[in-house]
Specification:
Elements: H1 10-24, H2 32-53, H3 56-63, H4 66-86, H5 88-91, H6 97-108, H7 114-122, H8 127-152, H9 163-183, H10 185-194, H11 196-220, H12 223-226, H13 229-256, H14 261-271, H15 276-286, H16 292-346
Helix pairs in contact: 1-11, 2-9, 2-10, 2-11, 3-8, 4-6, 4-8, 4-13, 4-14, 6-16, 7-8, 7-14, 7-16, 8-9, 8-14, 9-15, 11-15, 11-16, 13-14, 13-16, 15-16
């Protein structure tokens, strides 16, 4: 059976289903504590497997391209937060204060890893540099994101915790498992490469667990009573504005700085995207439990929008480059045939 083009991907459908389930049957009471324990274990396992999967050869291959990485990291951790702050007077009236807090949190997050690399590959960009840049963004984000949140989001929203306490929690829950995975890569790395479906299952499963727990808490606190249809529409507008400006800025900057076309593609995809996989666990650690649902909702909408837009761009650019290569190959073949014909005539 052919899948309808208008139907979202399976993971997006699962996210929507999880939000609906949490809205109808939120976890509460005595079940909350064991569910939170299960979620923490799943998130730790996720970062452990990502650490074991990350190839050191890929890091070395792309690490020397420092100019590209500086542009990507500047877009991710400087341009995006400044954009969120600068546009607040214009965009915040479209949503509730709690939702715009989620928008600001979104602006502080690192870039995606899997989709950035995948789209760079489809568009025929610099894949090794994309691997290095996206991976570095995720690692740096473990420290930079909590610090940025402490500057641009109120302490009340962050549960009254200090930036250093938040960083320490993230180090224990996210970085320690990641480093452990890296250390054990020689032992389990090949097994993970052969069983990529396991990583995908843990990746998506942990996100769904965190989303279900976050929205359960938010529902218990009356999230949908404070979020109107107009506010959801405002989130879509805000996501489109942020993504459009980020894509435009990375396109303009990478071209003006004289990067090759392959490097421009890498900068555009790595510098304009935000990580749902990193953002949801970080939100759980950084923010008070009753605020997490509203905080991750803007990220979920932005994530889906960036996937659709970047997928279309990657396919278009990849097809255009392939057509250009075929045309060049055809011209060379015709020229070679002409040369052979001339040589034959002289004989």
């Amino acid at each position: 059976m052919v899948r309808p083009k208008f139907l979202p991907d399976n993971f997006t459908l699962c996210l929507i289903g999880t939000v609906i389930l949490a809205s109808l049957l939120p976890v509460h009471g005595v079940a909350t504590k064991p569910f939170n324990w299960l979620t923490n274990v799943a998130v730790g396992l996720l970062f452990f497997l990502h650490g074991a999967k990350l190839s050191r050869d890929a890091i070395v291959a792309g690490a020397t391209h420092w100019r590209l990485h500086i542009v990507v990291l500047t877009s991710t951790f400087i341009f995006f937060p400044l954009l969120g702050i600068a546009l607040k007077p214009v965009l915040s009236p479209l949503v509730t204060p709690a939702l715009y807090m989620g928008v600001l949190f979104l602006c502080t997050l690192p870039s995606t890893v899997q989709s950035s690399i995948a789209f760079t590959s489809i568009a025929r960009g610099n894949v090794p540099a994309a691997v290095c840049s996206a991976s570095a963004s995720s690692l740096i984000g473990i420290f930079v994101t909590p610090a940025l949140v402490s500057f641009i989001v109120t302490n009340q929203a962050a549960g009254g915790t200090s930036a250093w306490h938040t960083v320490w929690n993230i180090v224990l829950q996210l970085l320690v498992p990641f480093v452990a995975g890296q250390l054990l890569r020689p032992v389990i790395g090949r097994w993970i490469e052969r069983n990529r479906s396991v990583l995908k299952f843990v990746d998506q499963g942990s996100i769904l667990l965190v989303v279900y727990g976050a929205f359960s808490e938010a529902i218990n606190q009356g999230l949908w009573h404070h979020t109107s249809i107009a506010a959801l529409g405002g989130l879509v507008v805000i996501s489109a504005v942020l993504l459009g400006l980020a894509l435009g800025a990375t396109m303009f900057t990478s071209k003006k700085l004289g990067f090759s076309r392959a490097d421009q593609i890498t900068i555009i995809f790595c510098g304009s995207k935000k990580s749902l996989a990193a953002g949801v666990p970080m939100a759980k650690v950084i923010f008070a439990s009753n605020a997490v649902g509203a905080v991750v909702l803007p990220l979920m909408l932005f994530h889906q929008l960036q996937l659709m837009v970047c997928a279309a761009l990657a396919q278009r650019w990849g097809a255009r480059d392939m057509s250009a290569e075929r045309a060049e190959t055809g011209d060379e073949s015709r020229a070679a045939r002409g040369e052979r014909a001339v040589a034959g005539g002289r004989q």
